[in-house]
Amino acid sequence: MTKVYPNAVIPQSATVTAPTRGPLVLTIWKKSLLFNCHGFTVYDSNGDLVYRVDNYTAGTKAEIILMDATGRSLLTLRRKRLSLVDNWTVYDGETAANPKFTVTKHVNLLNTKSIAHVSITGSKTKKPIYEIEGSYTQRCCVVYDEKRRHVAEINRKEAVGGVKFGGDVFRLVVQPEIDPTVAMALVIILDQMFP
Question: CA 65, CA 41: separation in Å to the nearest integer?
Answer without folding.
Answer: 13
